[in-house]
Write a structure and sequence with these properties.
Layout (H helix, E strand, L loop, with lengths): L1 H12 L5 E2 L2 E2 L3 H10 L8 H11 L6 E4 L7 E5 L7 E7 L3 E2 L15 E2 L4 H18 L4 E7 L7 H7 L8 E14 L3 E3 L2 E4 L1 E10 L14 H13 L7 E9 L9 E10 L2 H21 L3 E10 L2 E3 L1 H10 L3 E3 L9 H7 L2 E9 L19 H14 L1
Parallel strand pairs: 5-8, 5-9, 9-18, 10-17
Antiparallel strand pairs: 1-2, 3-4, 4-8, 6-7, 10-18, 11-16, 12-14, 12-15, 13-14
Length: about 375
C-alpha cells in the first residue's frame, strides 16, 4: 500500500514535455492520470478545477473566468480578434458513484468513485487542444468550457441559466464523447438528434406498516409498486425507453414496509412524446396509490434536452472531417443538449475501442478505461474543426 501511495504522489507531481517561459506545464496525458486517480462527483470538482486553473494560468494568452453561480468549473477565453465571433468547445469534469475494477496504475484512489464515463479523457482532450492553441496562436476567438456536473446535476443548464455565455457572440459549439462501440480514432455523428431527451425521477409510495400476521391493518406500498409496474407494462411505450434502475423497500421480513421507492428514467428522441408519457405515468401512479390507500411523492432528479446537431453546421464539418462516419441516434442522455438548443452545435462520438468487441467494457462499467492514445485523437478532431 505504501508503494502504491508513493507512485500516486509521483503521478500527481510529474510534468511531461511541455513548458512555457521555462516553467513546466502538465501534459494532457498526465492531466488524465491525475483526474482519473482523484475523481470527483457532480458539483464537487474542486481539485479538478484548481488543477486546471493552475496549469492554464501559466499561459498569458488566456483569460480564466470563474463560472457565475457555480463553485466548480472554468470558462477560459482566448480572444485575439476583438469583437469577433467565438467558437465554444466543451468538456465535462465529473465522475460516477462506482467502484473501479480496472487495476490501472492510475486507478481511482477514492473509494466508490471513478471516471467510468470518460470525462477524464474529455477534459484532457480539451486541455490538450488548449495547449495547441497556446503554441499556434490562431486568430479565431475560442471559448473553452470545463463544465461541472454533467452526470447528475445538469451543469450545462446551470451555466446557461447563470448567463455565463451571454456576453459572447457564439457562432458554433462543439463537444465529443468517447465510446468503446467504435474503433480508436474513428469519429461518428449525424445531423439532427444524436442523444435522446431524458428525465430521471423517483416515485415513493408511503403506506402504513404492520406485522405480517396482521396484514389487514397495513397499507402496503410495495404491493402498490408492483401493481403500478404491471400496469405500466401494458402502456404503449414504443417511442419511449422506460428504465427502472433501483427499487428499495422495507426493513425486516416480518413487517410490511412503510415505503417503496422506484428510481426511474425515461428516454426518447421526441421531447413532446416524452413529456406526454411522463404525465400519463404520473397519473397512473396516482390512481394506483389511491387504490392501495397509500400516498405518492414524485421527485424529479434531472431533465436533459436532446442533443440536436445543427443541419447546416453538420454539413460544414462533414467537409472538414475525412474520418467522419454516420451513426444512429443514441438513447443515452447528455446535457450538451441544453447548449445545442441555444447555439448551432455538433457533438461527436470518438471511438476508443482496441481489440475485439467481445472484450469491451462499455460506458459506466467499473472496468471502462479508454486508452491514453484517445487523447491525441480527440485533440486532432478539435484541431480539424477549428484551426
Amino acid at each position: 500500500m505504501g508503494a502504491i501511495c508513493e507512485m500516486k504522489h509521483f503521478l500527481f507531481s510529474k510534468f511531461l514535455n511541455y513548458s512555457v517561459k521555462g516553467v513546466g506545464v502538465m501534459s494532457p496525458e498526465e492531466l488524465r492520470r491525475q483526474l482519473h486517480a482523484y475523481p470527483e462527483l457532480s458539483f464537487l470538482e474542486k481539485k479538478t478545477t484548481a488543477l486546471l486553473r493552475q496549469e492554464i494560468a501559466k499561459w498569458d494568452c488566456f483569460t480564466i473566468k470563474k463560472l457565475k453561480g457555480l463553485q466548480t468549473g472554468l470558462l477560459v477565453e482566448y480572444s485575439p480578434n476583438k469583437g469577433g465571433n467565438f467558437i465554444l468547445l466543451r468538456a465535462d469534469l465529473d465522475a460516477l458513484l462506482l467502484q473501479e475494477e480496472t487495476r490501472s496504475s492510475f486507478s481511482s484512489t477514492v473509494d466508490g468513485v471513478m471516471h467510468a464515463c470518460g470525462h477524464d479523457i474529455h477534459t484532457a482532450i480539451l486541455y490538450g487542444f488548449l495547449l495547441q492553441v497556446a503554441k499556434e496562436r490562431p486568430l479565431q476567438n475560442l471559448l473553452f468550457l470545463f463544465q461541472p456536473a454533467e452526470e447528475s446535476g445538469g451543469g450545462a443548464l446551470k451555466v446557461l441559466e447563470e448567463k455565463n455565455l451571454d456576453c459572447y457572440s457564439i457562432k458554433e459549439a462543439y463537444a465529443l464523447h468517447v465510446s468503446d462501440e467504435y474503433n480508436l480514432g474513428r469519429v461518428y455523428s449525424k445531423s439532427g438528434s444524436l442523444f435522446a431527451a431524458t428525465c430521471a425521477f423517483d416515485l415513493t409510495f408511503t403506506g402504513r406498516p404492520a406485522h405480517v400476521a396482521f396484514q389487514d391493518l397495513a397499507a402496503n406500498p410495495l404491493e402498490a409498486s408492483f401493481d403500478f409496474l404491471n400496469a405500466l407494462k401494458k402502456k404503449d411505450s414504443s417511442a419511449i425507453v422506460v428504465g427502472l434502475g433501483k427499487m428499495s423497500s422495507g426493513t425486516v421480513r416480518n413487517i410490511t414496509p412503510q415505503t417503496a421507492k422506484l428510481e426511474m428514467t425515461l428516454r426518447s428522441s421526441d421531447e413532446e412524446k416524452l413529456e406526454l408519457f411522463f404525465q400519463e405515468l404520473i397519473t397512473l401512479a396516482k390512481v394506483t396509490a389511491i387504490r392501495h390507500k397509500v400516498t405518492l411523492h414524485v421527485e424529479m432528479e434531472s431533465r436533459y434536452a436532446a442533443v440536436m446537431n445543427d443541419e447546416n453546421l453538420f454539413k460544414k464539418v462533414s467537409t472538414k472531417l475525412k474520418n467522419l462516419h454516420l451513426c444512429k441516434e443514441s438513447m443515452a442522455g447528455e446535457d450538451f443538449g441544453f447548449i445545442s438548443q441555444k447555439y448551432p452545435s455538433v457533438m461527436f462520438w470518438l471511438g476508443v475501442r482496441q481489440g475485439e468487441k467481445d472484450h469491451r467494457y462499455g460506458l459506466h462499467h467499473p472496468k471502462f478505461l479508454p486508452p491514453m492514445e484517445s487523447i491525441a485523437e480527440g485533440i486532432k478532431l478539435f484541431s480539424r474543426l477549428v484551426l
